[in-house]
Design brief:
2 domains; Rossmann fold; binds D-glutamic acid; alpha/beta; 4-stranded parallel beta sheet
């Protein structure tokens, strides 16, 4: 049993951790693009070519499913990846968790890379799933690469800049880039300090994506899998220390 994950870099670790919890016996194949990271500032065509190269490398290992553990690549390259790999290998994209975030009625914010923010895909998602909740799209310049480099000062700066673009009354924030899930506690702390809604709820995608990949691969979660999200990447509730290599 083998699941492949594609991202520009380490953002895929959140979904990998969820898969590890759901099926500790699954082999995980990781394909990323350290030389081309970040994908966020790149053109749709460039992102598509890079995601295809990663996916082709992963496909050579014949995985039972391939997760595009990257919002940016899901927005711009999912159709191309599916056209090439399916039906042989089910391809699961990462969709920003707009619907669950908007369930409380809003206002909400969607933090994402520049390539995802303002894309037609994200705008349609908000139109179809935000249920009319006031929604602010926040481009987070430099945050994914700061996370990738494990640079706490750059993470703090990028998070602060994004927090200033987030209206203070926002109560639910969608983490629309998989890298952001790795610094969820830092984001929560900044929003708590700068906003007037406390606590702010953060909505990532890793758990849902991991579950969907197992479903598409026809694999049941392990009967003794611990319930709920992996605490390391928990984006609601209990504070959890981020990985030592990050912040
Ligand atoms: N982790 C990716 C995402 O979910 C991409 C980050 C980047 O390379 O800019 O959007």
């Amino acid at each position: 049993m083998r699941i492949a994950l594609v991202d520009s870099g380490i953002g895929l670790l959140a979904a990998a951790a969820a898969l590890r919890r759901l099926r500790p016996d699954a082999s995980l194949v990781i394909a990323n693009d350290p030389a081309g990271m970040p994908w966020g500032p790149r053109s749709p065509q460039d992102i598509t070519e890079r995601a295809l190269r990663c996916a082709r490398a992963a496909a050579r290992t014949s995985p039972d499913a391939l997760i595009v553990a990257c919002n940016t690549a899901s927005v711009h390259a999912l159709d191309a990846l599916r056209a090439e790999l399916e039906p042989g290998i089910p391809v699961v994209g990462t969709v920003p968790a707009v619907k669950p975030a908007a369930e409380g009625g809003g206002p909400i914010a969607v933090w994402a890379t520049p390539a995802t923010t303002g894309s037609a895909y994200q705008r349609e998602l908000i139109r179809d799933f935000a249920g009319g909740a006031r929604t602010t799209e926040v481009p987070c310049h430099g945050l994914a690469d700061a996370v990738e480099r494990g640079d706490p000062a750059a993470v703090a700066l990028a998070v602060k800049a994004a927090a200033t673009l987030t209206p203070p009354d926002v109560r639910d924030v969608v983490l629309g880039c998989t890298h952001y899930e790795l610094v969820a506690e830092r984001i929560r702390a900044e929003l708590a300090a700068s906003g007037d809604t406390n606590p702010v709820r953060l909505h990532g995608s890793a758990e849902a994506v991991a579950q969907q990949a197992l479903r598409r691969a026809g694999i049941e979660p392990a009967p003794d899998a611990a319930p709920g999200p992996d605490p390391l990447f928990l984006v609601e509730g209990r504070p959890a220390p981020p990985p030592a290599a990050l912040v």
